[in-house]
Amino acid sequence: MLDYPLLAALAAVIRTGSFERAAQQLHVTPSAVSQRVKLLEERLGSVLVVRGQPCTGTAAGQRLCQHVEQVALLESELRGALPGLAPADGPTTLRIAVNADSLATWFIAAMAEVPGCLFDLVLDDQDHSAEWLRKGEVLAAVTASTAPVPGCNSHPLGALRYRATASPDYMRRHFADGVSAAALAGAPCLTFNRKDRLQVQWLRLALGGMAPGDVPAPPTHWLPSTHAFVDGALAGLGWGMNPEPLVADHLAAGRLVELVPGRPLDVPLHWQQSRIASTTLADLSRAVLRAGRRELHPDGTAAG
Amino acid sequence: MLDYPLLAALAAVIRTGSFERAAQQLHVTPSAVSQRVKLLEERLGSVLVVRGQPCTGTAAGQRLCQHVEQVALLESELRGALPGLAPADGPTTLRIAVNADSLATWFIAAMAEVPGCLFDLVLDDQDHSAEWLRKGEVLAAVTASTAPVPGCNSHPLGALRYRATASPDYMRRHFADGVSAAALAGAPCLTFNRKDRLQVQWLRLALGGMAPGDVPAPPTHWLPSTHAFVDGALAGLGWGMNPEPLVADHLAAGRLVELVPGRPLDVPLHWQQSRIASTTLADLSRAVLRAGRRELHPDGTAAG
């Protein structure tokens, strides 16, 4: 078996970002934590922690850290079954990858249904969140990816509906003569980050099956925050694909308008979860599927 | 002089994240972009782009990209002075580092006052945003750091006020016997990411000058989103340091309460901007300082 006191010290440093906070969490001195991590690094012959502000794990360090958390999760199950065991060191932490727009609209309701569990959320684009699962860095992910990651189950959640929205003033400035391909090519849009393809997907849809190379590439602001997207649209900075739940009131009140009324973009989402036997993870999965059914739009894949 | 058509191709690939989108932006074929980047890499003898989904710059690639954008900014100034020059390829993009809480509360109002300019925002903790400026990756930053970065001017903005907040139900569950050090040590809090020290700073303040090693280290959720912090507090997941502008209504309505009434934490912010001669950047700086004066709390350093 691996040396778990050493591994626990490593995981605490990587998760808290500092030797001091890890020491506090483990109720030992920072120098004890430092010795344990050094010993582990010597045994493995590789650096596991990049010392900095904050301290971060190397690829090997991250992998070990993930292993420690999976073992802790299994231990918490065992304690449920065998109450005579020594009490746990603390509540279980589930590391989950989720797209920012789900977090901003429906995911927190699911989290709140699993009390007594701590969450460590990794935010990534829905087209990339499954990679965290594939790398073993999270236990579950909200993802656009339908193909199950090896070792995981995949469940359809329904679709998050997006509306291409801008302020009325912005529409007057850029689309006084209508929302044409030429006008779209010159009107600034909002893009979350380099992974965000939603604006391009909507342009292709709205312009009716244009070849990818012909779809206009508008000038863009890079704005990596879901609510900043809404605020940026309200302030007239540009148009962007905003989740319907966040803009429905603004649309009804006329503070935002759709570029092309009645032309939403639906993004089907899936819940992929590790098959690791954990009642906490199973509880979360049930809560997530319930919240998805409640808050998302049923879509074609939901029947599959 | 450097070979700018090659550099422009490199910058477009790194900024858009793909050879195809770079080609579209530059109105050339993807193969032409690919050849230009390869030629540049051969001349420099180092890889500049990590090919992937999305493509990203290596450290050298990022540095060249930043140079191209500074030159483009200087060119846009020149075009203002000499209208006879060939028209610009597109609007100027300003790359700025800002903390997520400023973006969520007051920064977009400043951005909206500088029309005709595109923004490329990098989000980072206020204690770390100045590093982007130091590395030359952004032209300006909203930062907690007072010491001017070399080559930059620093202006005090005022302080963003935070309130330690939780839901009434959460308070009943965890602080029925009062907000003591012992109760705080067991009650889950929210932490944005490994760089976020606000909860610890507030604990130290609220518990009256405790030695750093004695401040409780509560169990925590990791929740890297400003609005998810507010939503997480409302849902009873934990307590967290929330920006006053986002929770004032919730506090007034009793949906959230302060852990210790009337014990806020003020975080003084500064605007640090590169001394590069740019009227666009100067316009933004004036708008940022105005928005800061309007939306932030005057603090001691504001008089300096």
From TrEMBL, chains A, B:
Keywords: DNA-binding, Transcription, Transcription regulation. Gene3D superfamilies: 3.40.190.290, Winged helix-like DNA-binding domain superfamily/Winged helix DNA-binding domain (1.10.10.10). GO terms for molecular function: DNA binding; DNA-binding transcription factor activity. It comes from the Bacteria. It holds the Pfam family LysR_substrate. Signal peptide: none annotated. InterPro entries: ArgP, LTTR, LysR_HTH_N, LysR_subst-bd, WH-like_DNA-bd_sf, WH_DNA-bd_sf. SUPFAM superfamilies: Periplasmic binding protein-like II, Winged helix' DNA-binding domain. Belongs to the LysR transcriptional regulatory family. This is LysR family transcriptional regulator. It comes from Azospirillum thiophilum.
